[in-house]
Amino acid sequence: MVQPLIDGFKNFREEYFAEGSVLFQKLVRRGQAPKIMVVCCSDSRVDPAILFGLRPGELFVVRNVANLVPTYSPDDQLHGVSAAIEFGVRDLAVSEIIVLGHAFCGGISALCKKLIEENKDGNNVEKKSVDRDFINRWVNIAKPALKEINFDDWPGNSQHEAEKKAILNSVANLKTFPWIKAAIKNKKLRVHGWWFDMENGALWGNKGSSNKFEKLVPGPV
Asked: By C-alpha distance, which of 96, 106, 123, 111 is closest to 43?
């Protein structure tokens, strides 16, 4: 099963470590200096470097289930996502943060199903929810943003509506971090919410303070 990875690394080595290739020499000597951070889903179908055609060193990537960002909570707990965001903003000084969601997100789907169960059965929902040690609590980060969604047509349009609202929720949560808020105020940082329509090959994004998504790149005709 791992042999394709070995073969793939050989191809990677031939491209980036061939005679005359200086990219990694520069990256080793100067360190990384990406200007863009992407907070994206762990889903294997959504690799931001591939989607955007970028090379090593050009993108600082934070991946987790459902591309979620928690609110600023400096306590004694373990905060892997917040630590990565802090490094990107305060140490790498990225100038753009993109929260990249996608169609048919399993994490958002799980949360939606949980909300549907809650609406039907009230407090009995925990008995029906899939038993997971970490995922159920994690996806609850987006729960406040999804409460107003009408799930009568589930999955239908409500699945994609939930994915987009979860993106906007993460964008809002980013702005609870004081050093992100300060960087935005000083016009050193911009935050975006993007949604990848993997079914149609299109890219959507919210512009400015708008909660509406507009098509940035249409799908192929």
From this structure: 106
Tokens, residue 8: 């793939």
Place of tokens 């702005």: 175
Tell me the per-residue pLDDT of 73-101, one tens digit each, with 9 for 90 and over.
988 788 999 999 999 999 999 999 999 99
Domain ranges of the chain: 1-31, 33-217
Where is 187: in which H helix or E strand? none
Pairing of strands 60-64, 36-41: parallel
- What is the DSSP code string of 38-59? EEEE--TT--HHHHTTPPTTS-
Q: Which residues contact 88 (CB under 8 A, 6 or more apart)?
A: 37, 60, 62, 94, 97
The C-alpha angle 112, 113, 116, rounded to 5 degrees, equals: 90
CATH number of 33-217: 3.40.1050.10
Whether the bond between 56 and the residue before it is cis, its omega within 30 degrees of 0, is no
φ, ψ of residue 84 to 5 degrees: the values are -65, -40
Fill in the DSSP letter of residue 121: H
Residue 78's alpha-carbon distances to 74, 75, 82, 142, 219, in angstroms, are 10, 8, 9, 19, 40
What pLDDT, in 10s, does the model give residues 133-164?
Answer: 899 999 999 999 998 888 888 887 899 999 99
- pTM (2 decimals)? 0.92
> 96-102 and 202-206 as β-strands: parallel, antiparallel, unpaired?
unpaired
